[in-house]
Specification:
The protein is built from two helices and nine strands, in the order H-E-E-E-E-H-E-E-E-E-E. It is an alpha+beta fold and about 160 residues long. Strands 1-3-4-5-6-7-8-9 form an eight-stranded antiparallel beta barrel. The termini are far apart.
């Protein structure tokens, strides 16, 4: 009986520690976000006309971001049969990347594992962030770059 009580208490402590550790790592970034505006390094609005982006931050430290323009030409032929112009049209302004992220204060650091541009893989992308209501605002220190994402609504 005594062993059963000790094992039960051990289970409760381990479970409580795991839950508190998860809560400590939970950030307000967790969830799905849609980019609603973007400014380049000079502070000039680039969205619109740039396509919207979608980013997901998970509670266990992963992110995935995609940018897929709408209104591209729909061709019903295999990629290997497309002309250079058709391929450029298909993939222009299309980006996808994923990796891990950490948060320290208001600094977001993303470590890029995979990207549509393989030259970026293995690098880090550091931004400052703030959340105002349902808006996530990302900036780059020392520039006028800013992106705003709105939290995706669950329906």
């Amino acid at each position: 009986m005594r062993v059963r009580i000790v094992v039960s208490l051990l289970f409760v402590f381990v479970f409580a520690y795991g839950a508190s550790a998860l809560a400590q790592h939970q950030t307000p970034l967790v969830g799905a976000w849609e980019r609603v505006s973007a400014k380049n390094d000079e502070g000039v609005d680039v969205q619109p006309p740039e396509p919207a982006a979608f980013v997901i931050f998970t509670a266990d430290g992963y992110f995935s971001q995609t940018v897929i323009p709408t209104g591209r030409n729909k061709l019903k032929k295999p990629l290997e049969d497309m002309t250079k112009e058709e391929l450029l049209n298909r993939f222009q302004l299309l980006f996808a990347w994923r990796g891990t992220y950490t948060v320290s204060g208001n600094t977001l650091t993303r470590r890029i594992i995979s990207h549509t541009n393989p030259n970026i893989e293995g690098t880090e992308f550091v931004q400052e962030f703030r959340i105002e209501g349902d808006l996530l605002i990302l900036t780059r220190p020392g520039s006028k770059f800013e992106t705003r994402f709105q939290r995706a609504k669950q329906e």
